[in-house]
Design brief:
Blueprint: H1 2-25, H2 31-53, E1 54-57, E2 60-63, E3 76-77, H3 82-101, E4 112-115, E5 119-120, H4 128-143, E6 149-150, H5 153-156, H6 166-173, E7 177-186, E8 189-198, E9 204-213, H7 217-231, H8 238-245, H9 252-265, H10 270-286, H11 291-306, H12 312-329, H13 334-346, H14 351-364, H15 369-381, H16 385-398, H17 403-415, H18 419-432, H19 437-449, H20 453-467, H21 469-475, H22 483-496, H23 504-513, H24 517-530, H25 550-558
Helix pairs in contact: 1-2, 1-3, 4-7, 4-9, 9-10, 9-11, 10-11, 11-12, 11-13, 12-13, 13-14, 13-15, 14-15, 15-16, 15-17, 16-17, 17-18, 17-19, 18-19, 19-20, 20-21, 22-23, 23-24
């Protein structure tokens, strides 16, 4: 009976260790390991009971007789002999060694990481902006390490207040480890507690506290990033070491304003973007040498144009000035360099310098998901679709739960005229959020190009429900069944342009649908003058009916598009 118990325990240990290591790698749900454990626990008393009640003899399996001292000792054989026990013991030891040294629970094996939202220990919702800002800053500092894959803030924020276990989160994000932590601010003193947890085993590898005065908050963030990098033994380049070591004091009021700016900027609403911009400008007033605040100004103006809230002629020069000032202060600031690259291509049409800036920015921060997305958009405008798809896939690896990155991948397929793949990708995005308007917008365009008018109109109806008819008209020309409807849409857009910014290309597209080339080129010239919506001219399918017209070729030439 004792032999059976020993062998059962040894085999159970081996099975649990193997399951614990292999099941997550096979993407099996967490309950499967629990199920194995429960079955083994239930089976233990049953197996031992059977061993107590029965013996294996020369005549086969028989019920164990009452103790009989006269019975010959050779009539019974142990179910498991010494050789079996030795083999099981050796296997158990081997599996234990393998699970300890080969399971990847050593911090030095970590090459991808996610920083989960930090806990607000102030118990004050008014301080959420501060905690969220510290979370974003820690991600930014870690992202500067090129040898480490760092998940972007957008995806990490999905796990705020979650009750999911670390192994499940690590599996969904595709990382080796996660960082959990908390923030406590009392007066001008800030304390961060951070702990590193292995993704597969849920093993706590490292924990530490860091405390600084608010004036040295930048040093605090870099210290935490340096400590994590040291713990996982990741290799740093000389430039990365210099970046993490480079610290300076900051005006606490400027830093508070900057964090509020980021908090509202991340909301991505018109009101949020405008409030965020004001806070960034306030941060600059309080600390004119604060490079990140200038980068925030540049990004605010870029997004305000992208979302149709400001005209390019008004916003892009201001964004350019802010990005250039940020780089004068801190030349290695990837966020500002990405903004500069974006402006050079979308507003200056300086394609060569734009690509150089994109590449330099991504050398400085290869983990910047938005940088890969914007570089992919540039490559798409150039017609380099394979390279563009590589960039957007890299962005998705870094920000796997980002809706806009997922939808933009579908948009790239649209430009490449792979409409079925575009539709498939947009539907995949809508599985994450059925109300994500950009995915519906891209579906509408795909259906339009495929002549699927009924589906296109259905998407337009959904867009109207989500963002309203006025807003919908600013972004699309629907499938107008009759000429009268198309002309009515043009009239609406012209009236709307008296109240808010409307890109001239949206009106030009409707005239293309109406086969009115003269009017289409008239509005394209207006778009050229205000530098709005013309970046996709070289590749967008909607302009195909105009490509044989010399006026179109001349327009591409004036925009300096490469051959």
């Amino acid at each position: 009976m004792f032999r059976v118990a020993a062998v059962y325990a040894g085999i159970a240990f081996i099975l649990i260790q193997v399951a614990d290591i292999t099941f997550p790698a096979l993407n099996l749900p967490d309950w499967t390991i629990t199920f194995i454990l429960v079955v083994l626990l239930i089976g233990f008393p049953i197996t031992v009971g059977l061993a107590w009640a029965f013996d294996i003899t020369e005549k086969g399996v028989v019920r164990t007789p009452a103790e009989d001292k006269a019975a010959p000792a050779s009539t019974r054989r142990p179910i498991f002999g010494n050789l079996t026990l030795a083999i099981v013991a050796a296997l158990a030891i081997a599996v234990a060694v393998w699970s300890w040294f080969g399971s990847g629970s050593d911090a030095s094996t970590i090459r991808s990481i996610a920083v989960l939202p930090l806990e607000n220990l102030m118990n004050d919702p008014e301080q959420d902006y501060f905690v969220d800002g510290m979370h974003e800053a820690l991600i930014t500092e870690l992202s500067r390490i090129s040898a480490l894959k760092v998940i972007s803030r957008t995806s990490a924020m999905r796990y705020k207040d979650t009750d999911q276990l670390v192994p499940a989160i690590a599996r969904e994000l595709g990382v080796d480890a996660v960082v959990e932590g908390s923030v406590l601010k009392a007066g001008n003193q800030v304390r961060i507690t951070a702990q590193l947890i292995h993704g597969t085993t849920d093993k706590h590898l490292w924990v530490n506290d860091y405390e600084e005065d608010l004036i040295d908050i930048l040093a605090l963030q870099k210290n935490v990033a340096q400590a994590i990098a040291k713990e996982i033994k990741v290799a740093l380049t000389a430039e990365e070491e210099a970046q993490l070591a480079s610290v300076h004091a900051i005006n606490p009021e400027a830093y508070e304003a900057y964090l509020k700016g980021r908090y509202f900027w991340n909301k991505r609403t018109e009101e949020g973007l405008i409030r965020g911009l004001k806070y960034f400008e306030e941060a600059i007033e309080k600390d004119p040498g604060y490079a990140l605040a200038y980068a925030g100004v540049a990004e605010s103006y870029l997004v305000l144009v992208d979302w149709g809230f400001l005209p390019p002629r008004e916003a892009y020069p201001k964004a350019m000035a802010a990005a250039m000032r940020a780089l004068e202060i801190e030349s290695t600031l990837a966020e500002a360099r990405i903004s500069l690259a974006y402006i050079k291509y979308i507003y200056d049409w300086n394609w060569g310098e734009a690509e150089e800036e994109f590449k330099r920015a991504l050398e400085l921060n290869s983990n910047y998901a938005t940088g890969h997305q914007w570089y992919g958009e540039f490559l798409t405008a150039m017609g380099r679709f394979d390279e563009a798809l590589e960039e957007i896939r890299r962005a998705r690896e870094l920000d796997p739960l980002s809706l806009i990155i997922s939808a933009i991948e579908g948009w790239f397929y649209f430009f490449a005229r792979q409409y079925d793949l575009a539709i498939e990708q947009c539907r995949r995005t809508l599985e994450m959020d059925p109300n994500f308007a950009p995915a519906h917008l891209y579906l509408l365009w795909c259906y339009t190009q495929k002549g699927m008018n009924e589906e296109a109109n259905a998407e337009f109806q959904i867009l109207q429900e989500l963002i309203g008819r006025v807003a919908s008209l600013k972004y699309v020309s629907a499938v107008w069944v009759e000429r009268g409807e198309a002309l009515a849409a043009i009239d609406e857009l012209k009236k709307l342009s008296q109240q808010t910014y409307v890109a001239p290309t949206f009106i030009a597209i409707i005239y293309v649908d109406l086969d009115d080339r003269d009017q289409a080129f008239k509005w394209l010239e207006k778009a050229y003058e205000v530098r709005s919506g013309t970046i996709s001219l070289k590749v967008a399918p909607v302009w195909d009916p105009l490509r044989d017209d010399p006026r179109f070729t001349d327009l591409l030439r004036r925009m300096n598009f490469p051959e």
